Amino acid sequence: MDPTTAPAGVSHDMSFLGLFLQADPIVKSVMILLVVASIACWTVVFEKIVRIAVAKRQAKAFDALVRSGGSLEASGKGMDAQVAAAAIEAWRDQDSSETRAERRDRIERAMRAALTTRLKAMQTGLPLLATSGSTAPFIGLFGTVWGIMNSFSSIAKSQDTSLAVVAPGIAEALFATAIGLVVAIPAVMAYNKLTTDIGRVQASFVSSIGILGNRLARDRTVHGRAAAAE
């Protein structure tokens, strides 16, 4: 039933659920879309928090390994293991005609390529946060405009402009904008935080790659302090 044509004395449910159930079908669709977007965003956030925490530990382990001069023979599928494996493979593919600078550049490029591949995987889902953060308020605003437009239309038909009649319809419409902001604000904050954390992980690896590349470039017989046992 349209809130603007409800009989006198009939109270309106102003709870969140009540505002949703009494809203126009278009406004309901907007609300559902925003709720789904919010669930998707929080799923991405929690997944990235876990992955970044693991990546930070791997970056710390890789840096410790490089600075200690330990063996690069690593197992597993972590980011540090893949970067180390790329270093070993590039080191083994030596050319006697290379200068030290050329050898270092080639080894570092191989490690950075392996790192970039893993970082791209970590960034999956971040565009959803950026998109939700920038569009959710406007999607909610669309629902609000549509709801207010319908409320005014109903008011014009009923010829009753009392606040008791207008308020429920306006509240339902504004609820869509509120949901849009609830989606957008955490999405933007999470996107900024996660991209910063990923950037720090990258910077840590790049620093270690520079140290390791320099060491391997001047060492033609061993990688790290351990010879490649083959």
TrEMBL record:
Keyword tags: Cell membrane, Membrane, Protein transport, Transmembrane, Transmembrane helix, Transport
GO biological process: protein import
Source taxon at top rank: Bacteria
InterPro entries in UniProt: ExbB/TolQ_transport, MotA_ExbB_proton_chnl
TM helices/strands, residue ranges: 26-46, 128-149, 169-191
Pfam annotation, one family: MotA_ExbB
GO CC list: plasma membrane
Membrane topology term: Multi-pass membrane protein
Protein name: TolQ protein
Localization in the cell: Cell membrane; Membrane
